Amino acid sequence: MTQQADGAVSRTRIDSFDLLRGVAVLLMMEQHLGVWLWQGPAPGRRIIDYPVLLGINILGGGAAPAFLMLAGVGAALFLTRAAPSSSRASRRILATRGLMILGFGYGLSLLTPSWFTLRSWYVLHLIGASQIAIAVIGRRRVFLAGACLLVLAATPWVQGLLATPAHLTNLRMTGVDPMGSAHAILPGGHLRLALAEGQFPALPWFAIFGWGALCGAIVPRPDAPRWLTTWGLVLTSLGGAMVVSYHVMRWPFAVSYPRIFKLNVPFFPCTPAFILLMGGALTLLMAALLRRERNAGLAHVAALCSLGRCSLSVLIVHVVVFRELVRPLGMWRACDVTTAGAILVFTLVGSMWIAHRWQRVQFRYGAEWMLRRLAPNRS
Q1: How many angstroms separate the Cα of 334 from the Cα of each of 39, 170, 283, 341, 346?
Q2: Distance CA 359, CA 378 (A)
Q3: The pTM is what?
Q4: pLDDT-derived band of residue 247, with 50, 70 and 90 as boundaries?
Q5: How confident is the model at residue 45 (pLDDT cuts 50, 70, 90)?
């Protein structure tokens, strides 16, 4: 559903996807705040002794894949809904918005020096670049599917070529060689991170964005839930089989190729097995919500949908506030479980309340509002 000037919503927007974005925002914030505020396990205890914090941290790992896939869905829906006569204009608008999101990414890097440098390649960079790629590819689904497969196939090869470590630290994902003299910059710099070694490099993360775009092109069809369920099961089964072959069965072929079959926790660097598994799980979730929305509607989710509609703004603001601004206050990794939990709950509930009220003015002055103002859809 899309929002009108008076705060009402029209039926051109799909609540299922806004709801998923809202859930992804909650998962993202609970993971980040838990890590950035909590002082860590007490002496003599381990992270596993805090099952609630451990559980929500693991769940938070699904936030970024959900953002990327839903961004792909949104890009495809934007192009699919355009009239044939305005196809070129819609692609130009999508590319312009992609450039703006890239700009948001670099702006976030400047505002968060404790985490990023201008070499960094975070989720906003990938969404922006991927939107530009979708604008170039347009509605040619065969090309898009081929690009996704090529990305997955190239990922382990490129990681091997660059000797990407089995675990990427935050320092390494800024392009610094921890083993080099005076923290020397790795060859390739920004391009190396954007391609394979940043937080969310094109290899393999474009595949989940592209898969979202393929799903988005199908969504307007009456049989979309059935189609999504079928392919969600295919991807989940394939990704699950790859993970089981490495971690459970320990088959020699799978063990010999960890860059393909291993499930890294955390997912830096990411493998094709994780992309397939997560892509399939998210597709099944989208299918279930879409079927529910079409059959009976989605009740009592307005606040979460509002949060999903301003997810870009929330992502930027919460990173700057809780990664940078808490440091002068002495709160960086200094809170006990109770204090960190209280701040977390207050932030999550407050964010939903603010988003629900902010929607009445179309999220004025937020990132989404800027995208609509500076690159309006006149089709």
Answers
A1: 5, 20, 38, 12, 18
A2: 22
A3: 0.94
A4: very high
A5: confident
